[in-house]
Model the fold of this input.
Amino acid sequence: MTLITRRSVLIAGTATAGAVLVPAVSATAAPTDLKSPKNTKTSGKRISVGSGETYTVSTTTRVSELSIAAGGTIVAPDGSSLSLTVDGVETGQLLTATGGTATLIQAGTYRGDVVLTVAAANEVTYETLTFPFRQAVYVDGDGVVTDKSVLAAVLGGKLTDAYANNVSITSTGECFDGVYVQDATYTLDRPSISLTGNGRCDFAGYGAAVVGGGSATTLVVAGARIDNKGVVRTAVIAGGGANVIVKDSVLRARNGVLPADYQATVETPYMESVPWMLGLDGNVRATNLIGKNSKATYLNSTVFSETWGALSVEGGSGLKLTAINSHFGNTGEYGYGTYAIGDATVRVLGSRLDVGSYATIIAGPAAVVHYGDSTRAAVSALNTELELGLSKAELASIPARNTVVNSGHFGYMFFGAGQLTLDGGTVINSDRATFLNKGQQTTISVDGSQGARLNPRDGIILQMIELDDPGPVNVNGKMMNIGVYTEPTGDPAKDTSFDPTAVHATDGAATFNSIALKGDFYNGMRTGKNMVLTFEDASVEGIISASKAEHRVSSIDASTFYELGIVTNTTQAAVNNGAIVRLNSGSTWTVTGTSYLTRLALAADATVKAPRGKQVTLTVDRTATAITPGQTYTGALTLTVA
Done:
């Protein structure tokens, strides 16, 4: 009746990598070595814990009924964890405090195939907190570790030291993980995992369906069906240098209900909801990529969060997030497809995004993002670089596709510095501006030679504004999300040290090659940052100008987060917000409205014109000036259409 603690319990009795593991629990009466406090009743196949009593379960036990009175407590010995399953479903466990890490089986009566699993502790430290993980399956370099696993929560299929095939894991308690792989090579083939109820920390993976951690980990998740619902109840987490490869899978994460006393914060050990200052809401993201040199690849998979984010990257360094021929995004009104922070590399090839707010949030300071086609050459190169392990036959079976983004708000939001490349047949459809730059240094490159297109429904391709994130507020030493953005009043003061006619390394720069564009470009910055636009063999029809950018409301807090980034533009002469246009060879700008520039450089075969039936005129420092190909104009430039 005790848990067998060797690494595997083998049906054939031979300890090999392919051997089948079975749950090591016994279906007998309650064991005699349980530490039963006075007045606590253990009767046959039943355990009853009275009010005010603490019952210690020293070994894994199966009973037909567990009854815990209000005020009663059932625990495992020190150094161990206790998990309750009823008919193979982990249940009953709740966090003992908001912001805490410990869980406890709640008072109530549990009937059926009731198993109390005593497992060795799996304590994971993240920053200032240590999380006492419990998981259905724990895998390390030697295979499944049964004394760290709750195998009573693993139903059906085949579980071995090398792979799990067609297993099912269900949880309705809090902070229970499905599969935790640490420094191991392992394959999850067609698992079905459903976790309902809150998790606690998706920076550590506490409460996630699948976690791959450690630089020696290669975790392949193939044909998975993961459906989670709960606060930070993430589907897949890759961290600590792991290489996690998700293929042919469907992942879904739906919001839970935050504790009534939860206070929104940006302190990551305690963060359970998205910082609203990103213009988002929600409390669960479908995936997360963390740590140093970790990699996560999603191939031919469907990944959706309700809000917040689908494919996230958080902190760390050297992170690589890749989506190939996948469909991902948000089922709710707000959310992002991918997130790029630090020096992360994010690549989206041949995929479809249906997102609430942004295809990607670029949070810098050295993030690199690429959206393009899943050509055979590109996928083959990634197969080598990312060590995906795809065979020649698998590579040959992957169709080449273009990427399509459908966004209910913006295309891409720069919350930090970064580099963004769009090429191939990529199509970006967004209700608002394709590119929203909140005062950041950018290197945007759009190559339309293979059919890439930008389709902003509000007619704005690039919008630059001041960062409208009010930031967190220090409350008793903790950074809380209670800031308020207040629209500045009055005209900006001229910064005499900043040159609005020059190109600076810190400017918001964008280059457009071999593409026909229809839309406007506005620099609504108040402080020193220029908008630098370069057109190569491209045509653009629209307004390009410095502007006064104003939010629709003068004050924005958590209750009106959706107003962030939404502004109206009034074109006006630049102050500290130069607009620099370089029309290189083969380029044409059709000016559709009054535009204020600070520099205009024309190649010998470049053209500036007005729409048919109209005429464009140029003044430089209020002096009428002819527009001549091959010339460069600097100063206060005004182009007027009449």
